């Protein structure tokens, strides 16, 4: 039989001998798939490699076996169907489990080697984010996820009953992070869920996802913040690419005297065995383009768009391909977005009639971070709020934070699941969300 522990597996044999009876061997052969067992045995080297297991040079001879938890006779999802390679010419495509079946039976689906690796790497990305920023003097804070008012255009929000009134689930923690900056914390970050009613079944949208958000002050120019965020991304990418060192997260399995240590590249290789993708490429320091340059690149390739139009998803992807072809990078920064498509607290570009001091960052042609310089002058912020027809009364808690002085600041928010999806080259964000929520899914 094959015994699996997390992403590792070993071949196990029950052989009739002076101490092992035929009845015991029969008992072993009748144990249902996915049952939990405790085994005591002896490790032996094999004359040839075992292709179906992660432990290819050894096998385990059973001395004792105990069934800890018996699995049902009929499984709703066979593990071998769940981890069949995703390949267009796969001859077994008709028996490969579809994504909905996997998500409906997540407790089984999570046992596949690829899923074990994906969610360990997701934890590592979050760990790197926290450790890198903490080392740079950031303080982690924990803002509320229930708010009295909506941000942005006011349409992309979940409204909930709140005692005798109404409240809203947070779209992002930016405003509270900014208030913390006004409270003299200088550098803060948050990690937590945000909620957006995306009535879409696209490959990149969820109604709940994990947001990695940061805000910081700067001395002379908001590009100081852009450079910190850019360095954060490249440090994460390097951390995933290189072998873990002392103090970083590793995973081990011990079978008597066998000890296996995996690097993150080993995890990525495991994922690529099911999801075949191109390795992620990036530059250090990252490529930085300005929005008008991106518009010109798109126009030169047949796209019609105005100077103040936002990028559509197809145009984002096309731009990503153009950047990859010209600069050979999957990660880049797009600066100086039009002010007309940014929120009211965004600082206008003093050198442009239409631009702003705001930026997005992209991986494989898809946006993973939106950010910008925030207006820190109270009177100018009030002017912008009135110009954008913001309900000043509802945002008094935010606006009042600037009455008493606030340093220049900027920041941004990152979607954790989207970063993992795009770094690994997965084709659906639900694969990078352990329990995804979208317009059609509220379970498990």
UniProtKB/TrEMBL annotation:
EC number, UniProt record: 6.1.1.12
GO CC annotation = aminoacyl-tRNA synthetase multienzyme complex; cytosol
Tell me which Gene Ontology terms the entry assigns under biological process: aspartyl-tRNA aminoacylation
Residue ranges occupied by any Aminoacyl-transfer RNA synthetases class-II family profile domain in the UniProt entry? 119-444
Q: What class of enzyme is it?
A: ligase
Per the database entry, which stretches of residues form a coiled coil?
Answer: none
Is Acyltransferase one of the keywords?
no
InterPro entries, A to Z: Aa-tRNA-synt_II, aa-tRNA-synth_II, aa-tRNA-synth_II/BPL/LPL, Asp-tRNA_synthase_2, Asp/Asn-tRNA-synth_IIb, NA-bd_OB-fold
Q: Please name the PROSITE patterns in this protein's record.
A: AA_TRNA_LIGASE_II
This enzyme catalyses: tRNA(Asp) + L-aspartate + ATP = L-aspartyl-tRNA(Asp) + AMP + diphosphate
Q: Which GO terms describe its molecular function?
A: aspartate-tRNA ligase activity; ATP binding; RNA binding
Q: Which UniProt keywords apply?
A: Aminoacyl-tRNA synthetase, ATP-binding, Cytoplasm, Ligase, Nucleotide-binding, Protein biosynthesis
**Subcellular location(s) per record:** Cytoplasm
Which SUPFAM superfamilies does the entry link to?
A: Class II aaRS and biotin synthetases, Nucleic acid-binding proteins
Q: Which Gene3D superfamilies match?
A: Bira Bifunctional Protein, Domain 2 (3.30.930.10), Nucleic acid-binding proteins (2.40.50.140)
- NCBIfam families per the UniProt record, alphabetical: aspS_nondisc
Similarity remark: Belongs to the class-II aminoacyl-tRNA synthetase family. Type 2 subfamily.
Under PANTHER family, the record lists:
ASPARTATE--TRNA LIGASE, CYTOPLASMIC (PTHR43450:SF1), ASPARTYL-TRNA SYNTHETASE (PTHR43450)
List the protein's name.
Aspartate--tRNA ligase, cytoplasmic
The species this protein belongs to is Acyrthosiphon pisum (Pea aphid)
């Amino acid at each position: 039989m094959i015994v699996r522990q997390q992403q590792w597996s070993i071949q196990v044999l029950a052989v009739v001998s002076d101490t092992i009876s035929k009845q015991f061997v029969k008992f072993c052969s009748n144990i249902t798939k996915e049952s939990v067992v405790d085994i005591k045995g002896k490790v032996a080297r094999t004359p040839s490699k075992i292709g179906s297991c992660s432990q290819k040079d050894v096998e385990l001879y059973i001395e004792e076996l105990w069934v800890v938890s018996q699995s049902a006779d009929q499984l709703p999802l066979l593990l071998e169907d769940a981890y069949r390679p995703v390949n267009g010419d796969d001859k077994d495509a008709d028996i490969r489990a579809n994504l909905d079946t996997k998500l409906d039976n997540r407790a089984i689906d999570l046992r596949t080697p690829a899923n074990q690796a994906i969610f360990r790497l997701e934890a590592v990305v979050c760990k790197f984010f926290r450790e890198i920023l903490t080392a740079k003097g950031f303080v982690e804070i924990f803002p509320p996820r229930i708010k009295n008012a909506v941000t942005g255009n006011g349409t992309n929000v979940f409204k909930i009953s709140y005692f005798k009134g109404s409240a809203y689930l947070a779209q992002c923690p930016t405003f509270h992070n900014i208030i913390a900056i006004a409270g003299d914390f200088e550098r803060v970050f948050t990690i937590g869920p945000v909620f957006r009613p995306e009535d879409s079944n696209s490959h990149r949208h969820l109604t709940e996802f994990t947001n990695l958000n940061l805000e910081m002050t700067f001395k002379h120019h908001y590009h100081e913040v852009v450079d910190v965020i850019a360095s954060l991304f490249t440090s994460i990418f390097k951390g995933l690419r290189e072998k873990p060192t002392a103090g970083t997260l590793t995973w081990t399995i011990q079978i008597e005297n066998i000890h296996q240590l995996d690097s993150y590249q080993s995890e990525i290789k495991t994922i690529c065995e099911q999801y075949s993708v191109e390795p992620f490429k990036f530059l250090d320091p990252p490529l930085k383009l300005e929005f008008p340059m991106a518009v010109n690149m798109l126009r030169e390739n047949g796209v019609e768009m105005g100077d103040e139009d936002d990028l559509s998803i197809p145009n984002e992807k096309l731009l990503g391909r153009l950047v990859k072809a010209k600069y050979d990078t999957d990660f880049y920064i797009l600066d100086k977005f039009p002010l007309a498509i940014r929120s009211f607290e965004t600082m206008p570009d003093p050198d442009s009639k239409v631009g702003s001091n705001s930026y997005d960052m992209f991986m494989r042609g898809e946006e993973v971070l939106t950010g910008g310089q925030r207006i820190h002058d109270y009177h100018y912020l009030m002017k912008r709020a009135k110009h954008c027809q913001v309900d000043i009364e509802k945002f008094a808690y935010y606006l009042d934070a600037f009455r008493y002085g606030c340093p220049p600041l900027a920041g941004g928010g990152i979607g954790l699941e989207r970063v993992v999806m795009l770094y690994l080259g997965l084709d659906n964000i639900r694969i990078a969300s352990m329990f995804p929520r979208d317009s059609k899914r509220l379970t498990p």
